[in-house]
Every structure is written in structure tokens, then in C-alpha cells.
Amino acid sequence: MEVGILKSLWRKDRDGRWSIHDAKGLTLKPRAGFDSDFFQYESQVELMTSHPAGNSLSDLLSSFGPTDFLMKQSILPVVAWVEGESIIRCIGTAFVISCTGYLITACHVLLDPQERKYAKVIRGDNAVRFHDGMLMGVLIPINPASGYSGFRFFQFEHAWYWGEWKDSPLLHEDERFDPLTDIAICKISEMHGAFGHHPLSLSLNGRVSRQSPAEGCADARALF
Questions:
Q1: Cα-flanking dihedrals φ and ψ of residue 51, to 5°?
Q2: CA 3 to CA 158: how far, in whole Å?
Q3: For the chain, what is the domain count?
Q4: CA angle 117–139–75, rounded 5-degree value
Q5: Which of 12, 25, 116, 224 is most exposed, with minimal Cβ within 10 Å?
Q6: Which residues contact 85 (CB under 8 A, 6 or more apart)?
Q7: Structural domain of residue 104, as residue ranges?
Q8: Residue 53 is part of a domain; what is its CATH number?
Q9: Cα torsion at 218, 61, 147, 66 (round to 10°)?
Q10: What is the pLDDT of residues 49-105, one digit of tens each?
Q11: Is the pTM of this model over 0.70?
Q12: In this structure, is residue 173 part of a structural domain?
């Protein structure tokens, strides 16, 4: 059974509205030696459109690339960094759901700094903020065709969750968050240029793929 997603390219029109510029289905083919249920997929160069929007090099580079690069534009690692520390923590995964930079992740990912006690979460009205010196966001890869390797960091500008903070009656215990659902919505800045972010769209076979951005794996049996 083949697993695939529909990749869509978005463009901002002159009136400021976003529209789908082009779309293409990407089939995730198992590498040799893997079964059809859980596998590392073959990476091959895909051309998303023959007429990219915009005139800049960045617009052109966002419209083609290896399969793993295109997948990693939609399935992103969530990272946290505390100013002054020499490490960056990879604490979860987020999925792009809007070309303008809205993402969906797990609520416990946002609360990781509080639960592991390396930064303090500031309580708000169903919104997450952090003390100065704490950064959280996602990494979006640079197209290897540019001649560079690496990622661009997009900081969370806003993050929302659903649940309730509860104070402990014991003085030595910190406040506790009781989630209504383990879902959170985050917002990052828009892409520069004419193109938008790459939402994780539809499956070619009525199923969606479950993929690890670090390993390039797909699970044909799972639904998000």
C-alpha cells in the first residue's frame, strides 16, 4: 500500500489574500529492506511547480527539492533554548496547518520547560508566555540546493492551550496545569517573499502518514 500527502504551494496576491498557487501529491516509497507498515522512505527530487511565484531565489528554492526536505517543511521539530546555555533542547513535533504560520502541537510540549524545571511558564488566559531569556519555536530546513545546510529558526509569537492552572495546597509544590485536551495552537511569522508556509495536507489514499522529521519514517497504519 502506498502512503502519500498532498503538498500545496501558497502565494500572497497583490490584494494581500492567500491562494493555492500549485499542488502536487508526494508518494512516500519504502526504501529497500523496509516493510510497508513502518519504513524509511526514498528521497528523490520533486518539482512542485513549473512556474514559481515571485522572482527571488528563496521563492524558487521553496518550490522544489528532495522528498525529505519537502516533508520537513510541514512536519517541524519544536526546540527550546535558554539564553546562556550551550544546548538547544528538541522537545517535540509541530505540524503546519496554515500557510500564514499556524501550527498544531501537543500541550505538554509547550509545558516542557515548566515540567522539567529549566524555565518558568507565565500563566495567562489560555496562552503561554515565557520569562525573558527563554526561546521556543520550530526549525525549518534550508533547501540543500542553495549550497547551504542547516535550518531557519522561527520563534513562537503566540501559543494557545485549553485547560486550567491549579495551585497546590502544599507550599513546597508548584502550581499544576490540568489540560482539557493535549492540543495546542502556535503562531510563527510568515515566510519572506511571495510563498507561504507548507501545510500538511491530504493523503492520496484516504489515510494520512505519520512521519518522524528526524528519521524520515512513515507509518501507514496510523492516523493523527
A1: -140, 75
A2: 33
A3: 1
A4: 100
A5: 224
A6: none
A7: 3-219
A8: 2.40.10.10
A9: 20
A10: 877 666 666 667 777 888 888 899 999 999 999 988 899 999 999 999 999 999 999
A11: yes
A12: yes
What amino acid is encoded at 46 in this protein? E
CA 12 to chain centre: 20
Spatial CA neighbour of 40 closest among 219, 207, 203, 195:
219
102 vs 138: CA distance, rounded Å: 12
Distance from C-alpha of 127 to C-alpha of 7, rounded to nearest angstrom: 30
Rounded to whole angstroms, the Cα distance separating 173 from 194 reads 49
Q: Rounded to 10 degrees, what is the CA torsion of 53, 55, 61, 67?
A: 20
* 224 in any annotated domain: no
In a domain, 27, yes or no: yes
Sign of CA dihedral 127, 210, 23, 32: positive
Buried b (16+ CB within 10 A) or exposed e, 123-145: eeeeebebeeebbbbbbbbbbee
Q: Give the pairing type, strands 176-187 and 45-47.
A: unpaired
